[in-house]
Design brief:
It is built from two helices and eleven strands; from the N terminus they run ββαββββαβββββ. The protein has 198 residues and is mainly beta. The protein is 11% helix and 40% strand. 21% of the residues are buried. The protein is elongated, with a radius of gyration of 47 Å. β1 and β2 form a beta hairpin. Strands 3, 5, 8, 9 and 11 form a five-stranded antiparallel beta sheet that branches. Strands 4-10-6-7 form a four-stranded antiparallel beta sheet, with no helix packed on it.
Length: 198
């Protein structure tokens, strides 16, 4: 019986070599060596990234001297004639207190009267923020916005000397303008002490 040879097509992506097997009816395909080599290269492709070693820093950081978290400021020996705190145009200006960098302040006030007071009263200080809008309200309307007040409440002829109790306030502005008053009938020599802290 005669055996016919079947036609088998070779479906290779690139040029391939087709050869007959030992049997008359079978043919096989094999890729060329160049194609196989490229396929292996695609599979084995590796990317390597080298990172430098982390830089090590060694040493000592030091600050010379004492690191201060507080400061004491004084406004000393200020002459204050009798004036009520309600007479805003006559209050005695005592300068400016710089508070930038601090969060709170302890205010204290002391002094002495020039002679025995016949009319008892109080001697004190009003501090208002040294800001344009606040100062304008004070100068035009006599308004005290965001004030801090410290006073010696019982100044009388019993003693020439007086002092307030220390009071703590929260600071909200970098500078404050200081204004003094005296409701006795004698001129007083006044000192204001501000202990600024964080």
């Amino acid at each position: 019986m005669r055996v016919g040879r079947r036609n088998v097509s070779c479906d290779c992506r690139r040029r391939a070599e087709c050869r007959e097997d030992s049997g008359p009816s079978f043919r096989s395909c094999s890729s060329s060596p160049a194609t196989s080599l490229r396929s292996q290269e695609d599979v084995r492709r590796v990317f390597i990234t080298n990172f430098p070693q982390t830089q090590q820093v060694a040493g000592t950081v030091a600050i010379d001297g004492v690191v201060r978290h507080a400061a004491l400021q004084h406004l000393k020996d200020l002459l204050v004639s009798p004036v009520s705190p309600k007479e805003t145009t006559r209050l005695v200006p005592a300068g400016t207190l710089a508070t930038d960098g601090f969060t709170s302040v302890v205010l204290s006030l002391n002094g002495q009267t020039k002679g025995r007071a016949l009319r008892a009263g109080s001697v004190g200080a009003l501090l208002i923020p040294d800001e344009e809008t606040v100062i304008r309200a004070f100068e035009e309307e006599g308004l005290f916005q965001f004030p801090m007040e410290i006073k010696a409440p019982s100044v009388s002829g019993a003693s020439l000397y007086f002092a307030s109790e220390p009071q703590r306030f929260t600071i909200g502005f970098p500078r404050y303008r200081v204004l003094l008053y005296n409701t006795t009938d004698k001129t007083a020599n006044v000192s204001l002490h501000a202990y600024l802290t964080n």
